[in-house]
Amino acid sequence: MSAQPTAVMPSTSAATPRAEARPQDRVFQALRRDVLLGRLRPRERLVEEELAARFAVGRYVVRAALDELTRIGLVERRPNRGVVVSDYDPSQIEQLYEVRETLQRAAIARMLLPASRSLLDELTTINRTYAECLARGELDAVAEANAAFHRTLFGACGNPFLAAAIEQHWEKSALVHGYAIGVPALAARSHADHEAMIACLAEGDRAGLGELCSRHMQPSLEAVRKTARTRP
Amino acid sequence: MSAQPTAVMPSTSAATPRAEARPQDRVFQALRRDVLLGRLRPRERLVEEELAARFAVGRYVVRAALDELTRIGLVERRPNRGVVVSDYDPSQIEQLYEVRETLQRAAIARMLLPASRSLLDELTTINRTYAECLARGELDAVAEANAAFHRTLFGACGNPFLAAAIEQHWEKSALVHGYAIGVPALAARSHADHEAMIACLAEGDRAGLGELCSRHMQPSLEAVRKTARTRP
DNA sequence: GTCAACAGAATTGTTGACAATTCGGCCCGG
DNA sequence: CCGGGCCGAATTGTCAACAATTCTGTTGAC
């Protein structure tokens, strides 16, 4: 029980939302949200001393948190030059989504269907939270619920390494699709997609689930393509 | 050109074996080899101060190197309890290999075949180095050549994210298959497999390459299964 | 006017000392 | 003889100061 593959995605997917023991985790989570919700834009610079002052903490803690963010690909460190928010160009995003689709289809192929009642309940609960937070305009919580849905769904493939890889790539592309949460129409569509996925899980419709998950990624990918054409 | 997916596997796959500028890279590489070549065994503890003394460097540098190793899954850090070499149990290894196979098949499906002359030459050169170092008994260099072969091969899929994911999982399982280098028969077999792969690349035999790569992973997986039965 | 070299500022990298935590043994009451 | 709780050693976590590097704006020669 030593090397849990989940350890690759340490505090993020930590099932224990306990008292946020370590300060570096708090900084890590805060910065992670800032990036994922667009409060920090791609290519924006992250200066250690500023962050240390903002979080009332030593620079060492900030460095550790930034290393953690580097690990999951949300920021990038250039030696002696500091840390910037990652910025994937459109072609990289296409490649990233290609990998995500491959991994997701592999996961779906490995799920045992129809899904257990407890899994269905869990997903239903998460999706309800999603809708509620959306109605209240709590974007932070919406993003968290969205992440939880995907994490739970693909975690059900039974292979922790595969689940970790999916989550890892999901987080990277979250840089891109995160903004969609702010668009009501897209968010509603997302919620409906999730419900349809749950239905597929209940009925054991593996092929349908696969298609659904692939289609689910399309809107944000289309948005990227569009802005790429508009602003070369 | 900011966020290169290769950055996920920073110094390891760095194509520039330049002057080892940063001290933490030197420590990182040394420890990585120790783990991969079995000089450090699974579950073995890594004490920061000991390493700092051994490498004649500050504890901070050791910490940074250990974090780097954590990132690629070779060691694991338990908060306030230190770092130990990762230890995957047999079922986890099966899962790991399953993901590797999925990723490798996806990569092979995306390669454009027949391969370019420069790629074939590069792989041939690497495999020759492999044989030469093996004959001389330089296991460090053999492991490095082996890694280079796989990195180059799957790097040819054209999707840096996919290549990075493959490399990432390859390194994790290197904890397991690394020992095979020391067994002459297995090492020879490995060399022959590599040649066959190059032939498939040259002829454009995609299906053959896929099967070959999957079979290539089997011996070490079998070894794991065997030791698992012997020593439950 | 353009470009190279050069200071000075801003920022990151590293060190050593100190604080906090975990782990093992020891004592002691039951 | 055994289990709970204290104590101390070993180890990790954090801080504040210092060193090294990169960046920016300016100067001066051509």
What does this structure look like?
- 2 copies of one chain form a homodimer.
- Chain A is mainly alpha-helical.
- The first copy, chain A, has 9 helices and 3 strands, in the order αβααββαααααα.
- Chain A has a 3-stranded antiparallel beta sheet with strand order 1-3-2.
- In chain A, α5 (117-136) runs antiparallel to α8 and α8 (184-203) runs antiparallel to α9 (206-230).
- Residues 6-19 of chain A have low confidence and may be disordered.
- The A-B interface holds A 1-3, 5, 7-8, 21-22, 42-43, 64, 67, 70-71, 73, 76, 79, 84, 86-89, 92, 95-96, 98-99, 102-103, 106, 159-162, 165, 169 and B 1-3, 5, 7-8, 21-22, 42-43, 64, 67, 70-71, 73, 76, 79, 84, 86-89, 92, 95-96, 98-99, 102-103, 106, 159-162, 165, 169.
- The structure holds a DNA duplex (30 and 30 nucleotides).
**What is the number of E strands of chain A?**
3
Q: How confident is the prediction overall: mean pLDDT of chain A?
A: 88
Largest sheet of chain A: 3 strands, antiparallel
Overall 3D geometry of chain A? globular
Q: Output the strand order for the largest sheet of chain A.
A: 1-3-2
Helix/strand/pairing class of chain A, anyone? mainly alpha
> What is the CATH class of the largest domain in chain A?
Mainly Alpha
Biggest chain pair contact, residues each? Answer: A-B, 36 and 36 residues
Total tally of structural domains of chain A: 2
Fraction of residues of chain A in helices? 55-70%
